[in-house]
Amino acid sequence: MTDATDRQLITLLQANARESTANLARKLGIARTTVVARLARLEASGAIVGYTARLGTEAGERAVQAYVGITVQPKAGREVVLRISKIPELRQLASVSGEFDYMALLTAETTARLDQLLDEIGEIEGVIKTTSSVVLALRVDRTA
Q1: Does the predicted model carry a pTM greater than 0.85?
Q2: 51, 63, 117, 130: most buried by Cβ count inside 10 Å?
Q3: Which residues contact 30 (CB under 8 A, 6 or more apart)?
Q4: Per-domain boundaries in the chain
Q5: Rounded CA gap, 130 and 119, in Å?
Q6: Which value, in Å, is the radius of gyration of the alpha carbons in the chain?
Q7: Counting beta carbons within 10 angstroms of the beta carbon of residue 13, is it exposed (0 to 12), middle (13 to 18) or buried (19 or more)?
Q8: Is the alpha carbon torsion for 41, 47, 51, 57 positive or negative?
Q9: Class of domain 57-134
Q10: CATH fold of 4-45
């Protein structure tokens, strides 16, 4: 179970996963050894599953991102997920409640490539429809 200090630690790591344990301890007002122990516990519990590098603004501006709602025929979900999972531009795929069965996050180099990807997904057997929303600006990003 995480407490307020764990949540603050996670927030600091989301801002800079390479922050030293000494700096994290200083910012949190706790001992460095406490930070090390908390990190080990958060990793062991699965609250923290990895550390990564995020691309800078210049690289991010070259990419087009879209959230794609996907509606599938009953009992077609497993095969649709397998096929979509093979798309290299897929960043996330979640089963969701509501209007869609799945929500995908795609990142493509160009709008033309995004259009191709949407066609590919729409042609998968079992897909009834897709609805896309292109990301215009990222206001808050706490993902790594």
Answers
A1: no
A2: 117
A3: 5
A4: 4-45, 57-134
A5: 9
A6: 19
A7: middle
A8: negative
A9: alpha beta
A10: Arc Repressor Mutant, subunit A (1.10.10)
Copy the structure tokens of residue 144: 């790594």
Q: How many residues does this entry show for the chain?
A: 144
User: Cα separation of 57 and 53, whole Å?
Assistant: 13
pLDDT tens-digit map of 89-129: 899 999 999 999 999 999 998 999 999 999 999 999 999 99
Beta-strand runs (E) in the chain:
64-72, 90-95, 102-108, 127-134
CA distance linking residue 93 with residue 98, whole number of Å: 15
Q: Which residue has the tokens 């096929």?
A: 83
Instruction: Please list the rounded mean pLDDT of every run of 10 residues in the chain (144 residues).
Output: 85 86 94 95 90 60 86 95 92 95 94 94 96 91 67
Round to whole Å and give the CA distance between 33 and 102: 42
